[in-house]
Write a structure and sequence with these properties.
Shape: flat
Structural class: alpha+beta
Helix content: 25-40%
Radius of gyration: 33 Å
Largest sheet: 6 strands, antiparallel
């Protein structure tokens, strides 16, 4: 590591190039920039056309660039290696360019991560790298989950803190100014919320949210005798009482993606406590209506009854299914949660059970059946495949990419369909049920098959498949 004292170091930039001379850096060269406003930043030169030109932009990151029209002059950062200088313990001043040139620009006040202090978020900084080179970047404290990094190019290309020997801030720009304003607002909000006031009309029944849920519950039980607070709280996000701008409000609280701070969305549909209670009744009514224990647990409270029904239903078509295969899918149970019986599930045997909340016993059985079908297909390996030829097929903006029939080791068949566009895509698998193969003719088979994999959704229809003799043979007709 370098022996120079970064706290006493001054870098003097003495070799600037004036934009008005149309003396531009090489394509992709990273430069220190003096703007016409007198501020300093940096960026990678990207001309707007081939050949020598003064039009273009200096790129700092994704959607973050400086138009050359805003730049007065530039100074290369990439053409210098400070290694020899920084290996001198008594070095305090480093000239970049001829020492006697007029108009030099000096940077000092360098800091190191060894000081246990980071740049402020979104602050654009001049960097001295561990290899002796110079660079610049915008500090992102969330980057790489390693305490932050300096972003310097599109697609969040960045320098980790381990690559940087010392840094010093450049001028404040719009992004950093916005971050400073956001931090100022957060500090003000925190100060206002230390002793929030409570509107007596809005909080007539106090500041315990459970009181308002209980009063709403009394009204709901006039319609639904089975209603409970636990059922009401399934309607998410739940309502809470929280401070906002120095006042208590009924609000829903979510987490800020960037800093995990609370975002309070206040109730704005009324101004009285009774108005909020009536709103809470309407807000939770549908959830409570579909939580009738008699409907959910119509087959009792033994989960094995529901699982057995699902298993027997799936076994009719997926004849190779056995209960050993089910260890590879969701595990279900009935447990008491917040005082109410609930269907719960967890994936395989991992983690804790979570409430899955079907509206009825039949819906729970349908969910389990779908899990069992997937488990059965995953356990039945393909032994042969056939991909019918097709041209361009547009599926409402997606393109059909793959359409493959598979013969499974049990002698059954499935089909896999893949479609996508330039950005995204997906695949789905369908089991071709024995009912399809009970057809006497290939045409009748296709009629039944296309009820499972319809042409309007997956691209190929009866006319596409009927004349395909290879497919007909592959399917055993």
């Amino acid at each position: 590591m370098f022996t120079a004292n970064y706290k006493k170091l001054i870098l003097s930039f003495n070799e600037f190039h004036d934009i008005s001379d149309k003396d531009m850096p090489q394509y992709g060269e990273f430069c220190l920039l003096e703007l016409k406003t007198g501020d300093y930043t940096a960026g990678k030169w990207s001309p707007s056309s081939d050949g020598p030109t003064a039009t273009g932009s200096f790129i700092r990151g994704t959607a973050d660039s400086i138009d050359s029209k805003e730049v007065k002059r530039w100074h290369s950062l990439k053409r210098y290696d400070l290694t020899e200088c920084l290996e001198q313990e008594d070095i305090g001043w480093i000239n970049l360019g001829p020492e006697n040139e007029e108009g030099d620009v000096r940077f000092e006040g360098f800091r190191s991560f060894a000081d246990r202090k980071n740049p402020k978020d979104e602050q654009y900084c001049l960097l001295i790298m561990n290899d002796g080179s110079l660079a610049a970047g915008r500090w992102d404290k969330w980057r790489r989950n390693a305490g932050g990094a300096f972003i310097y190019a599109p697609a969040l290309a960045s320098y980790s803190r381990d690559e940087v020997w010392a840094w010093t801030p450049l001028s404040t720009d719009q992004f950093f100014a916005m971050e400073l304003e956001r931090e100022r607002e957060k500090r003000l909000e925190k100060k206002l919320n230390r002793n929030p006031s409570a509107d007596p009309e809005l909080f007539k029944y106090g500041t315990d949210i459970n009181v308002y849920y209980e009063k709403a519950l009394e009204k709901l039980r006039g319609e639904f005798c089975w209603a409970t607070i636990a059922m009401m709280r399934k309607c998410t996000p739940v309502w809470q009482i929280a401070p906002l701008h120095g006042k208590l409000v009924f609000g829903q609280i979510s987490k800020n993606y960037y800093d995990d701070s609370d975002i309070v969305t206040p109730w704005t549909e009324g101004t009285t406590a009774d108005g909020f209670i009536d709103f809470l009744v309407d807000y939770t009514r549908d959830t409570v209506a579909h939580s009738n224990p008699e409907e959910k647990f119509k087959f009792g409270t033994d989960i094995n009854v529901y699982l057995e029904k699902a298993f027997n239903n799936v076994k009719k078509d997926y004849r190779w299914l056995n209960k050993k295969m089910l260890a590879k899918t969701w595990q279900y149970d009935i447990q008491r949660v917040d005082g109410d019986l609930e269907f719960v599930r967890r994936y395989r045997n991992k983690g804790k059970f979570d409430v899955c909340n079907p509206e009825s016993a039949e819906m729970l059985i349908e969910w389990v059946e779908n899990d069992y079908r997937n488990a059965a297909l995953q356990s039945n390996e393909p032994v042969a495949s056939y991909e019918p030829p097709f041209g361009h097929v547009d599926l409402n903006g997606w393109n059909l990419e793959r359409y493959i029939f598979y013969k499974l080791k049990t002698g059954d068949y499935k089909v896999s369909v893949t479609a996508g566009d330039r950005v995204t895509g997906g695949s789905r698998e369908f089991f071709i049920t024995p009912y399809c193969f009970e057809a006497n003719t290939y045409g009748e088979f296709l009629d039944r098959y296309l009820e499972i994999v319809p042409e309007y959704s997956f691209g190929l229809g009866k006319n596409d498949l009927l004349q395909n003799e290879d497919l007909k043979k592959f399917l055993g007709y």
